[in-house]
Amino acid sequence: MSDIQTSKRLVTVLRHTASQMNISIDINGFVKVSELLSTREFSHLTPTDIKRIADNDAKKRYFIKNQYGELMIRANQGHSLQVSDLSFQPVLSGRDYPNVIHGTRHHAWNVISRDGLSKMGRMHIHFAIGVPGDPKVISGMPRNSEIIIYLNLNLALKNGMKFFLSENNVMLTEGDVNGFIKPKYFQKVIDRKTGNLLTW
């Protein structure tokens, strides 16, 4: 299995399935690397392999630390597992974030244009803080996105929504009380291929 394939499986475990695999995950989302390596799925790896995979991840999805001589790893965001402290930085103003975008596919747009963006079982809705193609945008938007939704961050903040930045500069929010960002908070929506503005 390549490092890329292993990384995809590793991030799934750290975000979603650690508990199902009887891997202990702490309140901050960290698991012991030694515990990961004791599972059948990752038993062929070494701590050095895990560190290399995390360090080389293009989307910077991992955070590794050494705690009391124990190597620990977590995913920076994207959890469906309930973790309460991921060291997010609160976003208090939209002044420094002129482009806050969410990428999606054509088949999802009909529902999104009506109901808004949803957490869909995760803890947060994710946004990139840049424009498509910007090399500084390393995470927060799928590469195969066909539609780009620009968020009116100032309006969402004004109406009481809370936003945070993760370690790898993904903007996150729980949305409203129902876990949605309604279409009224969309600033503009663009078809990525044609450049046309979409209406909703």
UniProtKB/TrEMBL annotation:
What is a biological process (GO) this protein takes part in?
tRNA splicing, via endonucleolytic cleavage and ligation
**What organism is recorded for this protein?**
Octopus bimaculoides
Out of the domains of life, which is the source? Eukaryota
Q: Which family does it belong to?
A: Belongs to the KptA/TPT1 family.
Alphabetized, the UniProt keywords read: NAD, Transferase
Protein's name according to its UniProt entry = 2'-phosphotransferase
Reaction(s) the record says it catalyses:
2'-phospho-[ligated tRNA] + NAD(+) = mature tRNA + ADP-alpha-D-ribose 1'',2''-cyclic phosphate + nicotinamide
- Which segments does the entry list as coiled coil? none
What are its E.C. numbers?
Answer: 2.7.1.160
Q: Which GO terms describe its molecular function?
A: tRNA 2'-phosphotransferase activity
Q: Which Pfam families does its entry note? A: PTS_2-RNA
Statement: the UniProt record of this protein carries the keyword NAD: yes
Membrane-spanning parts:
none
Q: Which PANTHER family match?
A: PUTATIVE PHOSPHOTRANSFERASE, TRNA 2'-PHOSPHOTRANSFERASE 1
InterPro entries, alphabetized: Ptrans_KptA/Tpt1, RNA_2'-PTrans_C, RNA_2'-PTrans_N
